Amino acid sequence: xxxxxxxxxxxxxxxxxxxxxxxxxxxxxxxxxxxxxxxxxxxxxxxxxxxxxxxxxxxxxxxxxxxxxxxxxxxxxxxxxxxxxxxxxxxxxxxxxxxxxxxxxxxxxxxxxxxxxxxxxxxxxxxxxxxxxxxxxxxxxxxxxxxxxxxxxxxxxxxxxxxxxxxxxxxxxxxxxxxxxxxxxxxxxxxxxxxxxxxxxxxxxxxxxxxxxxxxxxxxxxxxxxxxxxxxxxxxxxxxxxxxxxxxxxxxxxxxxxxxxxxxxxxxxxxxxxxxxxxxxxxxxxxxxxxxxxxxxxxxxxxxxxxxxxxxxxxxxxxxxxxxxxxxxxxxxxxxxxxxxxxxxxxxxxxxxxxxxxxxxxxxxxxxxxxxxxxxxxxxxxxxxxxxx
Length: 389
Prior knowledge:
It is a single chain. This protein is α/β, with parallel strands linked by helices and 389 residues long. It has two domains: 2-172 and 368-388, Rossmann fold; 180-364, Rossmann fold (3-Layer(aba) Sandwich). Helix content is 45%, strand content 15%. The protein is built from 15 helices and 13 strands. It has a seven-stranded parallel β-sheet with strand order 3-2-1-4-5-6-7, with helices on both faces. A six-stranded parallel β-sheet has the order 10-9-8-11-12-13, with helices on both faces. β6 (145-148), α5 (151-161) and β7 form a beta-alpha-beta unit. The chain is globular, with a radius of gyration of 21 Å. The protein starts with a strand and ends with a helix.
């Protein structure tokens, strides 16, 4: 089988994590030929597998959609692919071969995100999201099969589109690959981590964006400070709340201003982007992993945190409960007070932290990139059989 993967949209966050983990497993798959379209700069990460042809394309984001709709179908046709895998939320309207769409962006279905944009007076972003949402909904109709990374999000997509051709295949995790790099962190990051010894260290792994709900987390910090009996509380972030320090057009100035107004800027430890292969060292320096996201489709950092044995406090979303089960405590997603209570419960209830840790380590083993790729290829092969039959 010849599989063509359009991963031009993979530039940050979950999309990049996905491509980095899936391609090595596909490279090891016998009888599979692969063509991968990817953005400039990513090619060097994957070596030279014998069964993969890489198309490294330098296409600005503003032109990418038109390239995918107008030029890419001809590229797929001339390459002789059997199946097209569109990995960036949008499908090709007139694919010359059966198409699998990977849909993993819940902002198009989230009423909370629309309200958030309006409250920030981000009307251009609100309109852009609505337009992209229409295209995402149409994309589900154009694809033979849409794959979501969780059953909770698959169910949301079925309600949103009215289409039944949506299935869930969990994203995976490879602990050996995640923890295999022992190279030291940069001096700046290592110095920041060393200064945290003795503190209650919370960790949130994300670049800055609105739907990850940083503000609810920041509002919890003065509440925690006042209730920790003099113990220092620190929140580690794998981003910086400064303009130009994050991918995308989200504006972090509001979150930074909120921290200053609440007098908690000194509680923030802004590590900035940490190389994925070294990220496990940051998890090892934390006491509790927190995520206040108000919409989500899978959340790779939850599985990473579970594998590292961290107790988790997560916003009460169906996706978070599906991924973490009894390895997390859950709070109402916009309640800083509820978040504070759950963090204090995790660190002060005898035996609870150890129980959450053990549950998380065991649960993380259920997620496998090898299994994900196997299930994905089963779907692809069924489309080939159906087409040729």
